[in-house]
Amino acid sequence: MLRALILAVLTLFGWLLYLPVLILAYLVVEVLARMVLDGGWDERLVIAGVILAFSSGKHIFLLSWSSLLYRKRRLSHVTLLYPAKLDRTLDIEKIQHTMNESAKELQQAFEKPLLRPVVVVASPILLMHLRCRAAGFALPYTVIINPIYAGVFHQWQELARHELAHVATYRISPFKRVPALLSEGLACYFMQTENGFSLDAHALAILSEELCEPLFTMDDKTFYRRADAIRNYILAGSFASYLVHRVGWERYYRFYVSTSARKWVQDIEKILGKNVAELEQEWRHSLILRDDLSPVLPQLRLYWRVLRLIHHWQWQQVAEAAEQYLSVYGYDRLIASVAITSYFLLRQWEHCERWCKILMDDDSPTARLERGLSLLYIGCCYDLQGRREDALGAYKAVLQELPVPAWNYESTHTIAKRHLRRAFTIAHFDRYVRYKVRELLTEIGA
Q1: SS3 label, residue 144
Q2: Which end of the chain is more exposed for a tag (fewer CB within 10 A), N or C?
């Protein structure tokens, strides 16, 4: 009893010390951001503030100092910060131009526009330290994007619109909390498409492939559930689009800025005269009646079937569905990566190697991570077949394809070391290959 009481007192004391630190960190970010927007401070200090607010331990000082070395590009609506060596791997001007044009579009939509340039940071390592696996992360005055993942799951324009919409809504009502269904729905509404296909087409494919629980019953935890998060984003965006077209943008905008998590259901009913359950049923029925979605529906149904099977760990069915998709509709980087993983887990080395080589022919800069992972899988296939020299050659090639300083110079060869260790873990530990891989790890300072 005494031990439990002491533990409770220490826990309470710890929180009393920690809470002011969190509040101070938030205020630091806000003050620095406002100074940047007023033109008095350098944008790079915002990144230092974000890191100080969200990082911990030894990473604080390392990242704070390194973040001050980011390069800077300015346009009318966006200021882009990025590691210097990112120039070698991505079209920085294209990224900045896309973000800037998207900011212009959003400025026309909101009554309280993006008055000053938004700070956009291209930094995979910053998202990693924020424990964010998404392609982007929005703060009230800053957007952080991951250039490695952005080209895989989303097109640049879609990512830009989504994250900048979050920035705009933060500025409209910074202290008001709305449910994820509304906030992510509005951000996805501004995306307009997902990987080039309309949100409505994706939504109809999802609804025709699986039984989805009603959107209005989802709390934030359910909405962001890892297995269903991507699906829920798409459905929320399509539902938001339906509501906007039903009542018009101005009325929906007024509803969004005036509502809250507690009363949004009642507010929608006041505006439209119907409860949310009836509106959701009408939205689903309206998608079924859309003839313009029919041409792409078979392709998207198969696409979402592949993704659904992954979460059920049905690897043979995943591989078959991925093969069917790729043979009928042609190369798709994400589906090809899924096929590689499936065949590897099924120990079907020839099929795995075949798709690895096909994916390695994708020479676009944003496919660099997938090419490196393909080499990793090829090395593992050779390793598990006892082809020692071939396996070692593939492992060496991983370092050449994934030179981490080309993405960010803050942590030398972190990704390469992790992938080498992963190969070292999942392979069968052939002694010769294990010895040689350890030599490689020693060479890069692991």
Answers
A1: strand
A2: N
Comparison of pLDDT for 317 and 118, the residue scoring more? 317
373-395 burial: b if 16+ Cβ within 10 Å, else e = bbbbbbbbbbbbeebeebbbebb
CB atoms within 10 A of CB 94: 10
Contacts of 365 (CB under 8 A, 6+ apart): 89, 90, 91, 151
Q: Quickly state the pLDDT bin for 112 (edges 50, 70, 90).
A: low
Amino acid at site 358: I
* pLDDT at residue 368 greater than cutoff 80: no
Instruction: Report how far residue 26's alpha carbon sits from residue 43's, in angstroms, rounded to the nearest whole number.
Output: 17
Whole-number pLDDT of residue 386: 78
What tokens does 305 get? 């079937």
Identity at 151, one-letter amino acid code: G
Strands 142-145 and 118-122: parallel
Instruction: Return the CATH fold of 21-110+117-167.
Output: Zincin-like (3.30.2010)
Q: What's the CATH fold of domain 313-443?
A: 1.25.40
Residues 71 and 82: their CA atoms lie apart, in Å, by: 5
User: What are 135's two structure tokens?
Assistant: 């392609």
Strand partners for 26 = none
d(CA 202, CA 303): 9
pLDDT average, residue stretch 414-440: 62
**CA angle (184, 112, 75) in 5-degree steps:** 85
Domains in the chain: boundaries: 21-110+117-167, 176-312, 313-443
The yes-or-no verdict on residue 57 having pLDDT over 50 is: no
Find the largest Cα–Cα distance for the chain. Answer: 72
The pLDDT tens digits for 174-211 are 666 788 888 899 999 988 888 888 999 999 999 887 76
Rounded Cα–Cα distance for residues 139 and 320 (Å): 41
